[in-house]
Each structure stands twice: as structure tokens, then as C-alpha cells.
Amino acid sequence: MAYGGPSRPWCSWFMPLSCVACIAVFVYTMYVNNCPKNLGEDRCVFHDHLGRFSFQPRSENSLFGPSTATLKKLGGLSRNLVVYDGEIYRFFSCMWLHANVIHLLTNSLAILFIGVKLEEDFGFLRIGLLYVLSGFGGGLLSCLHQDESQQTLQISVGASGALFGLLGASLSEIITNWTLYTNKCVSITMLILVIGVNMAIGFMPGIDNMAHIGGFVSGILLGFILLLRPQYGYVSGPYIAPGYELNHKKPKYQCHQKLLWVISVVVLFVW
Q1: Transmembrane ranges (predicted)?
Q2: Does residue 4 fall inside a structural domain?
Q3: How far apart are CA 257 and CA 158, in angstroms?
Q4: Quick check: 159 and 135 in contact, CB under 8 A?
Q5: What is the tens place of the pLDDT at every residue in 117-129?
Q6: Is 103 within 8 Å of 201 (Cβ atoms)?
Q7: Could you give the 3-state DSSP secondary structure of residue 171?
Q8: What is the domain extent for residue 182?
Q9: Collapsing DSSP states into helix, strand and coil, what is residue 61?
Q10: Whole-number Å distance between alpha carbons of 207 and 156
Q11: Residues 239, 4: contact at Cβ < 8 Å?
Q12: Which amino acids are annotated catalytic?
């Protein structure tokens, strides 16, 4: 389909680079964690193979990762540190940290599966902005939901908020560009199924579902703003054929696209 002239898919590099960055940060986190020094070699998981990079005891981190204290030190999200110490940077630093190997791998694979296609369609600038702002939105709701009386125990980390932002944006992209899809029902059914499964996982113990919800809502709103496509039949100026009647030229965007754009801007501003 043409959206105003010939176009080629963007080259996706932001999403793969984000995954590489998350992996690099996790390796650095384990270096800083240094379980053998803090707890003794005999208590660390896989010390014989990983040495300084070995994991915390399974009783503390059952899925192979660092201590909560290390995550807090490196930028994990904590309400008290944001509200009372003014460490706003934690809203952004927390999305590059991960609690364990399973957390890191599942997020990375999901981001590649969803984010690469979006970046190929809309470019790194829009998808990169959407990714970071959704992560911020997820962190914000997570922070507001944290129990202030238990701040010594609660640290939120992970790219899940940003990931759910990509899911939300995918949903709003289908809605706002509805006329461009040929298999509408299949597309939206598959996406809702993926969203439902991920939301269900979020209710498992130890999962910060508030970050998921905050990222998802942010992604939906940002998708309506950033992911508009010109409607089917629109032809941009440079590609108008000789003799083409400008009076019959279709508008670039439909009324529902403009309305959803305005509503989303207002809601984000109020939020």
C-alpha cells in the first residue's frame, strides 16, 4: 500500500541496540554485585564457572540475578529515593536494569519480536521516543503504587513498562490506521491475545504489574499521536499524476485519526 509515494522499510537498529544495552548493563550489574566478596564463595550460584559474576543464593534470587541492594545502588526505582531525595533519573535508569536472567531474556526477546517491526515501519526516532516515554510512564505508575512503609524492600526494575508501551502502541496503530488493514480481525485478535497473556503473567508474585499497566496506557496514547499513517488513496504533492483533479484528492488523515490524536494529547498533558 502506498501512503503518499514510494517508501522503503526503515532499518531497525534502536531496538536491537536496546537489547544489547540491557545485556551489557546486566553483566555490569553482576560485576558490581560481586557475590563471592559479599557472601562468600560457597553461597554463590555457579561460582566455579562465573567467579565474580556468580549469582546470589537461590533463596534470595531464585532466577539467577543480583541482590536487591545492588539494583538499588545502580538505579532501581524506589519511591522514597525519587520523592524525598529527588533522584528523578531512576525513572529512566530502572528500565535498563533486570532482576535476573529469565527477566532479561524474556524482555529482550519480546522487545525484538514486537519492536523491530514497529521500527521498520515508523523509524527509530518515533519508536525510540515511544519506548523511552512508555518506560517512564510505567515507572511513574509503579512508583505511585509502591507501599511507602516498605521502601527498604521494594525496588522496581526492567524494560517491561517500555515493552508494554510497544504493545499498547501496536494496538492504537491498528485502531487509528484501521482502513489500511486488509486482515483487520486477525491482526487485532492476535495482538489482544499477546497482550492478554502478558498481562496475565503480570499477576504472578514478584511481578510489577503497575509498571505494565502504566507503560501500556502510555503506549496507547503515544501510538495515537506518533503512529498515524496517511489514509488509503492519499497522494502527496510530488506524486500527483498529470490531470489529477485536486478537488477530488482525499485528505491525508481521517477525522477519527485527528480526534484520537487530540484526545491523546490532552490526556497525556493532564496525566
Answers
A1: 12-31, 95-116, 123-141, 153-174, 186-204, 210-228
A2: no
A3: 32
A4: yes
A5: 999 999 999 999 9
A6: no
A7: helix
A8: 14-270
A9: coil
A10: 9
A11: yes
A12: 160, 212
